Amino acid sequence: MYKIIVNQIEKSQWPNNGTFLQTPFWCEFKARHGWEYRRFSVTYELDTDSAEFADGALNQGSACERSEGSGTGAEGVKAVHKSFELAVLNRSFAKGMFSIAYIPMMPELPYECTPEELLDKAFDDENTGSDSGPSVIAQEIITPETQTIEYTHLLQELAYALKPFLPKNTIVIRFDPNVGFSSPEDRDAFNFGVKTVAYADRLKLRKNKVDIQPPDTTLVDLTASEDEILARMHQKWRYNIRLSERKGVVIHKYEGNDKELSSKIDIFYNLTKETNARDGNSSHAKSYYQDLIMRSAALREEGLDVPVVSLYIAEHEEDEIAAIMTLFSHDEAIYLYGASSNKKRNLMPNHLLQWTAMKDAKAYGSKYYDMYGMPPEGKDENHPMHGLYMFKANFGGKNVHRTGSWDLPLKSIYGCYSAAEKMRAFWHKKVIKKLKGR
Fold it and tell me: What is the DSSP letter of 167?
């Protein structure tokens, strides 16, 4: 279905935009902590001799183009053509006996989707009988669901195109696709469609039950004014921010070149251990966090345009009661890690920490603030993750539900690795949390 050209290229600096997981800064940082990575240029086009085009799979201004006088189907249609760069991370296990290849937040859908606002207007016009103009429904509509076949084949064929460049002991190529939905139901329907296409076309692609990146998150729009961002929050969250300030909570920000950094990382790590003991979570080694923030500062001092990593600590009367670590790039700001003390939680330091980071990210120029992981549901007070869901959702962001991880197995040992991965996830996410009373 696709004609794909893949070339390995040098690991030079890329722009500090797009998803941070694909930046050289992040990939090189991960290479300092057990991974290796390769960078590729990818060009592909949809082979019109083999693909079946539906009229709804085309729209003006998308990556796919219609030539003059074209009709429905392959006749008169130019193949979709895209070029992009991606990074592939590799990690070895069992003393190098096998490795996995991981591609975070790539690839995107072949065709640009019709904006949700346009779809909403179309359905509103249809329901109200508006005669203000031609209905959008009569126009060509593109959604992720209309390109399920193309995307499923793209994942498999891209994986096989990358395979010759990867270590011979690679047992699986894993994607975390950059495809998001406004509801868990839409995401689940898309994933079911991909599974159906993979089964019907005898593709090896399969959904991994253990997701690497958090598939569900909420994004706070930072292009609005501070007053508008506050207005979109739940009123209780605005109150909590003011309460924290009024009670004397102070937020201090540290970067990798700060003279006090070592002691502040100690504080952050101790809060992390306290949080893990309370919630049944696990965390990185202290050196991981320290290297991340120091690496960012060192490269920026060299004049390189890399993401800014910062540590925020909330203090009250000389007590350090909460902390977060963030990453700012030109497109996104990420709430990477957080920790809090068991004491003085009534002072709402986490609300003030997040608001402070959002204001700084806006001043830096980031377009949105990613809370980076939340339960897909949790509005119901009886939901076990109700508290975490409401904390993140009530900052007024737009909830996004991505597909999660998809695997293309390359060797039979993948089955054993996948089973072990599921057991490990069950132990950490179910057993340990149960023991902790979560």
Answer: -
Amino acid at 372: Y
Sheet holding 206-207, edge to edge: 2-9, 36-46, 81-93, 98-104, 170-176, 406-409, 206-207
Strand, coil or helix: 31:
helix
Q: pLDDT: is 292 or 433 the higher one? A: 292
Residue 120 pLDDT level (bands cut at 50, 70, 90): confident
158 and 85 Cβ atoms separated by less than 8 Å: no
381/388 Cα distance (integer angstroms): 11
DSSP characters for 379-408?
-STTSTTHHHHHHHHTT--EEEEE---EEE
* CA dihedral (17, 21, 24, 28) positive or negative: positive
The pTM for the full model equals: 0.88
Please give the mean pLDDT across all residues of the chain: 88
- At 425, list the tokens: 């996830």
Provide the β-strand partners of residue 102.
Answer: 89, 174
Distance CA 211, CA 33 (A): 20
SS3 percent helix, strand, coil of the chain, rounded to 5, is 40, 25, 35
325, two tokens: 């670590």
